[in-house]
Design brief:
438 residues; disordered N terminus; mainly alpha; 18 helices
Length: 438
């Protein structure tokens, strides 16, 4: 797979001065890599929970359903925070908001590690969800300032690829904590997030909000802005006006429902697949090994990372920026691979890793196309608000799924049921996404 970019990415500077155009291109990439670097560590602050569940159950004596509600608390606070912080990213700038979120999430993870019961754990984890929501939409807003419409699919694919690698990092560091070092569950919320703190500080020092801050012209094509109803957007547009414009776009709301089902499938896998593969012998770790069935779970975020980049590329290069086609294709295949995972025993390491990789690949892949839709539909000046609103739907649905999956596992004592729920959610996402047609 080769990556090519159109000349539209250099904006008007390319016509005036080739040397300046080269400098601008380098600045574009620097901003993209800064955002990717920061978000590479964000999931160490929220996707480690599944690895802590067995230890929390053993210490607090609570059910999986109760822990599902704790997970839902983070997801719903994240959803509310997205609706707020996406707009704040438009208002105050993604650089400041994203960096603040990384630092505050680091603090709340440590607070979660000091919990004395399920109530305090749920409260701290929920507050952490709000601070985690200060990352994605503001970062997306910054990228939409630097990149034009015809490159967004690939750019958001790379940004989402970094998020997928963040899942890999959170899974690996968690397994190292509970497996290799044999520390208790509290250290899962202490060690990995040190990387998040460093990423947030580095992003603030490296990133700049928009090309104009560095003396460059905007890369946005006027015709694209008009097509996105952005011609009437003033530089000082208020928050209420931004929300009104975004919520009046029916395609964005349809996309919100579609990503809601997609994210319910995604978090069903991220939270409960570790529980499925850790099994009842989670505490009898010994030295971690790649042939240990617990390490099958690593195939999931690896597949997600690769799938995220591939889907953004496919939406740009294969479907001509018609994002909904890439979304429908991947979600349909996600449903098929999830049904296959349901039938595979945890003892079959090779087959389990292969199919779980594909399951993650197709389930998470469409996220890059969903995020590229936001500036496509409402224009880059409202991209933060649109991303926040869409992510509100995503995590509202994901939160609804967590206690439901935990309840099914408690009732039937069968962790593989997660794959049936994921298949249903993926199918629903594919059906709804077919109506976006943009």
């Amino acid at each position: 797979m080769s990556i090519t970019f159109s000349p539209s990415g250099v904006g008007s500077v390319g016509v005036q001065n080739p040397e300046l155009a080269t400098s601008f291109r380098r600045a574009q990439w620097r901003m993209l890599f800064a955002a990717m670097f920061c978000y590479l560590f964000f999931y160490t602050g929220r996707q480690t929970f599944g690895f802590a569940i067995p230890g929390i159950q053993a210490e607090f004596g609570v059910t999986k359903e109760a822990l599902g509600w704790a997970s839902a608390a983070l997801l719903w606070c994240y959803a509310v925070g997205q609706a707020i912080n996406g707009n704040l990213g438009d208002k105050f700038g993604g650089r400041r908001v994203m960096s603040a979120g990384a630092i505050l999430s680091f603090i709340m993870n440590w607070a979660t590690s000091l919990s004395t019961g399920i109530v305090s754990l749920t409260v701290f984890w929920g507050i952490n969800g709000y601070f985690q929501s200060m990352g994605w939409a503001p970062g997306s807003r910054l990228l939409s300032n630097w990149w034009g419409r015809h490159e967004r699919g690939t750019v958001y694919g790379l940004y989402t690829f970094a998020a997928g690698l963040a899942s890999v990092l959170s899974f690996v560091t968690s397994l190292v904590v509970v497996g290799y070092f044999q520390l208790d569950w509290r250290w899962i919320f202490r060690i990995p997030v040190v990387l998040l703190l460093l990423g947030g500080i580095a992003f603030y020092l490296i990133a700049r909000e928009k090309p104009e801050d560095m003396g460059f012209a905007s890369p946005h094509d006027e015709a694209d802005d008009v097509a996105a109803s952005e011609a009437a957007v003033s530089a000082d547009e208020g928050s209420l006006a931004r929300y009104k414009a975004v919520l009046s776009n029916w395609r964005l709301l349809v996309a919100g429902v579609a990503i809601g089902f997609q994210n319910a499938a995604r978090y069903g896998l991220l939270v409960w697949v570790p529980v499925h593969f850790l099994g009842s012998n989670w505490a009898k770790a010994g030295a971690a090994s790649v042939i240990d069935p617990r390490w099958i779970s690593i195939a999931l975020p690896v597949g997600m990372a690769v799938g995220a980049f591939s889907n953004g590329w496919v939406s740009d290069k294969v479907f001509g920026s018609r994002r909904y086609l890439a979304i429908v294709l991947y979600m349909a295949l996600a449903a098929v691979t999830s049904l296959c995972m349901y039938a595979i025993p945890t003892s079959d390491v090779v087959l389990g890793m292969t199919v779980l990789f594909l399951c993650g690949f197709f389930t998470y892949g469409p996220q890059s196309s969903f995020w590229a839709l936001c500036p496509d539909l409402v224009g880059h000046k409202r991209a933060g608000t649109a991303t926040g609103v869409m992510n509100f739907f995503a995590y509202l649905f994901a939160g609804l799924g967590e206690p439901m999956i935990g309840h099914f596992m408690d009732k039937h004592n069968q962790t593989s049921l997660v794959f049936l729920v994921v298949a249903v959610c993926a199918t629903s996402s594919a059906v709804v996404a077919a109506f976006i047609r943009r």
